[in-house]
Design a protein that fits this description.
Length: 313
């Protein structure tokens, strides 16, 4: 990309999309294109056709998706599979038809098999059954990866798929019913502190291990990959890259860390009635690191930054 390339950020208001927009602007890219979902419903094929016809972006960050935590995923599987299949199919196909130079498709590490060896490598894709709580979302995202790879093979497109670990950051979703674990716990622990509640309920056993990346590190990785010389991307990679920090914590340790940052002294309780989900999900990001990218923000630093933002908003 050069500084006046026409760059479309699909999902610019979301967690990754808003971080991408901020980071692109900071790096001097000023020809950015986006649409609110009220102006452009990416699940509607005709609308997406018209948009690409009119605007003809040169680069596309496909960060628009229906996302959510373990409860949302297990409660609304039809919404997760339908919305994500429609959004990605429309944007990927129109990007091909209109000669987009490079598209970056965002997935998630939940696409890997539930029992895959850890840390997760890209080659583990489709080697075993998926985690049931988010299988609908995972199947949609796997379809997106295979669609990018099929278009690259048949049409010579340059579509890259990135699989980030659990992300958190500014503009995150704090709704306790639909959010991911980190913002979900931050909202609950903050409220417990404000209300003087003696305990906070954490879902599950607290034993599962998770890896978390600050959304602006993720955005930096996406911009880095969008700019990598095509010749440097290993042919056998299928243009599929994990993005993660390799820093693992248990849900209990995460809750304790958030209590420390929030300044909450109450007691953590664990609700075995709520699902644990997959017991471990840590990435092996060496394929990305081999190209020269490294993240910057540690978990403690990121939690402090997010809490500061939460208090101000
Ligand atoms: O981020 P999360 O909801 O989803 O994390 P996944 C779920 C883990 O955190 C489970 C525990 O072990 C939960 O028992 N947990 C504890 C909580 N308290 C809470 C809470 O208050 N809220 C939430 N949400 N969890 C997601 C996939 O899996 O990973 C998405 O569902 C996506 O599709 C995302 O791939 C990256 O990490 O299990």
């Amino acid at each position: 990309m050069n500084k006046n390339s026409l760059i479309y950020i699909a999902g610019h208001n979301g967690l990754v999309g808003s971080a991408l927009t901020r980071c692109l602007r900071e790096q001097g890219y000023h020809n950015l294109l986006f649409r609110d979902f009220r102006e452009l419903d990416l699940t509607r094929q005709a609308e997406v056709e018209k948009f690409f016809e009119a605007e003809k972006p040169e680069y596309v960050f496909l960060a628009a998706a229906k996302v959510g935590g373990i409860l949302a995923n297990s409660t609304y599987p039809a919404d997760f599979i339908y919305d994500n299949l429609m959004i990605q199919s429309n944007v990927i196909h129109q990007s091909y038809l209109h000669g987009v130079k490079r598209l970056l498709f965002l997935g998630s590490t939940c696409i890997y098999p539930k029992e895959a060896p850890q840390p997760l490598k890209e080659e583990y894709l489709l080697t075993g059954p998926l985690e049931p709580t988010n299988e609908a979302y995972a199947v949609a995202k796997i379809a997106g990866i295979r669609m990018c790879q099929s278009y690259n093979r048949q049409h010579g497109t340059d579509f890259i798929s990135v699989m980030p670990t659990n992300l958190y950051g500014i503009n995150d979703n704090f709704n306790p019913e639909t959010s991911h674990v980190l913002p979900g716990l931050m909202g609950k622990i903050h409220k417990a502190k404000m209300n003087g509640d003696p305990t906070v309920m954490v879902w599950g056993s607290g034993k599962p291990l998770r890896e978390f990346m600050w959304s602006e590190d993720m955005a930096a990785a996406c911009i880095f990959l969008m700019n990598v010389d095509r010749a440097l991307i290993p042919e056998d990679s299928g243009k599929l890259f994990n993005i993660g920090t390799e820093e693992e914590v248990s849900i209990r340790e995460l809750a304790e860390l958030i209590c420390e940052v929030v300044g909450y002294r109450g007691e953590l309780r664990f609700d075995p009635g709520k699902p644990d989900g997959t017991m471990r999900k840590v990435t092996d990001p060496s394929r990305l690191h081999a190209l020269g990218f490294a993240h910057k923000v540690s978990l403690r630093e990121g939690i402090a930054k997010l809490y500061q933002w939460y208090l101000n908003h």
